[in-house]
Design goal:
10-stranded mixed sheet, 15 helices, alpha/beta, D-Maltodextrin-Binding Protein, domain 2, 10 strands
Length: 340
């Protein structure tokens, strides 16, 4: 059984003390908002008998809540999206190291924290999409997005979005701050419109003709291939091509993670570790793949039909915990080049 509480502010809701510390339970703070994850949680309960009490909210709210709760926090696991948020929780002292042979053997080293405080469980490649009717020579690398030949053609999310911040942070990690600043300025010069909307809106910009090139995570496109998303479906995507761009000659496509870690003051620590190990199992990895059109973190797990249409790709092998440490520098660059 899964009990769900929706978080509307950092201090709005409290778990009942009688349930928060009970044996056989797990208190999950999650910013994943996908209905398809329900099977992920119910399967864990069926396998273990552990009841999940789930509090949902955006990552910033959940992190703020854990900070406010301090040592009395009932949180056992923080589950969220993007390396920068996981690293922020670690830096705030909200996570603890986990010594698990299961996690070490199944989760690739570059998809986990160097101190074993967080682990990635699914991947979304951040790639280039383009209008095949108007673009015959699409960008093959992320650096190409700044090429003057694409002036007035590129749509991208705002600088306040974590995916934008992580991408620029990866450029910094590979190419240094000076080159990253030049790249960011070049991308701004090539904007077709002011940054706006989410990833699906970047794809809609291609369909409407407002953009010729856009950047989005793969699962938004794969989801639209599988099912109509507010008028964005297979028919609308028919004229859109895509490239898994390279970060360097030896590094492939940039990846965003969905991941989690055990809370620093977890009252049900053993259950929390068991849950993370479950997320690395073949069955849970298949739920990530089929339920939300993501790439599994564990090698060898089959892709969903919609993701298979996008195909396998070579990921950037960079240590994502190192990338996350460049976010402050990335935000300075965004401000310098007026990337809204």
């Amino acid at each position: 059984m899964t009990r769900i509480l929706l978080l509307t502010s950092a201090a709005a809701i409290a778990l009942p003390v009688t349930g928060a510390f009970a044996e056989g339970e797990l208190n999950l703070y999650s910013s994943r908002h996908y209905d398809t994850d329900e099977r992920l949680y119910s399967d864990f309960t069926e396998q273990t008998g552990i009841t999940i009490n789930r509090i949902e909210g955006n990552a910033d709210e959940l992190i703020a809540r854990m900070e406010a709760e301090g040592r009395n926090s009932p949180a056992d696991v923080l589950l969220t999206v993007d390396t920068t948020r996981l690293e922020r929780a670690k830096d705030a002292g909200l996570l603890q190291a986990v010594d698990s042979d299961v996690l070490e053997s199944r989760i690739p080293g570059n998809l986990q924290d160097a101190d074993n405080e967080w682990f990635g469980f699914s991947q979304r490649a951040r790639i280039v999409f383009y209008d095949e009717a108007d673009v015959t020579d699409p960008p093959q690398t992320y650096l190409d997005l700044a090429d003057p030949q694409y002036e007035g053609m590129v749509c991208h999310r705002s600088s306040t979005n974590v995916y934008s911040q992580t991408l620029l942070s990866a450029v910094i990690e590979h190419h240094g701050e000076e080159a990253a600043r030049d790249w960011a300025q070049g991308v701004v010069n090539n904007f077709a419109r002011a940054p706006q909307g989410g990833d699906t809106d970047q794809l809609r910009g291609l369909v409407s003709g407002e953009c010729d090139i856009s950047v989005s995570n793969t699962y938004y496109f794969a989801r639209a291939l599988r099912t109509d998303v507010d008028g964005l479906g297979q028919d609308e995507l028919a004229g859109i091509g895509y490239v898994f761009p390279r970060m360097t000659e030896t590094a492939g496509a940039h990846v965003n993670l969905s991941g989690g870690g055990v809370a620093a003051n977890a009252p049900n620590r053993d259950n929390a570790v068991a849950f993370l190990e479950y997320l690395a199992s073949d069955s849970a990895q298949s739920y990530f793949a089929n339920g939300n059109d993501e790439y599994p973190a564990v090698e060898g797990v089959p892709l969903s039909e919609s993701v298979q249409q996008l195909g396998e790709f070579e990921a950037d092998p960079v240590d994502l915990s190192a990338v996350a440490k460049n976010v402050a520098a990335a935000n300075r660059i965004f401000a310098d080049v007026d990337w809204e």
